[in-house]
Amino acid sequence: MRNSSLLSIIFFIAIFHQNSKADLPQVTLPGNSSIAIQSAKGTRAFMLPGKIESYLINCNKNRLIAWGTPRHLTNQSPQSGFVSLFDLRKQSLIATRQTPKGVMSVNYLSDRNSAQLILGYSALINLKTGAIKYIEVSEEDTLEFELCPIFSGKSYSRQ
Questions:
Q1: What's the average model confidence in pLDDT over 129-135?
Q2: Can you give the residue range of the structural domain that contains 58?
Q3: CB atoms within 10 A of CB 33
Q4: Which of 25, 90, 109, 120 has the fewest C-beta atoms under 10 angstroms from its C-beta?
């Protein structure tokens, strides 16, 4: 009797684990300026305001930040960029923001509420609203970044 209960528990855990892996959204870049999020609910595609250079998914696998260069550069903003924040579970775009400089890198913070944008200086993007707050160099020393094993699809870089 104990063995059958143990086998039932192991079977349930295996099925749950398999289903939870299948529910993880898959991200593809069907074009230079588009991103698609595919899950059991279907596929949602989004057009972004320029060429996607990179993206990074957080350890919880529920947020994706994509960044790149705008389609139309002007003399007034030759180095500008954009950053787009997605909710992967809801397959939705939370926000797209223009940045005064191109984003070079992104680091998710261990508090899971923000991510650091490296633009030659630092800014924080709120992972719920997409609001960007520029920070002082002295504040950078207090940032703690999330750490997790690399997983399939965690990041993309065009370089």
A1: 96
A2: 27-148
A3: 16
A4: 120
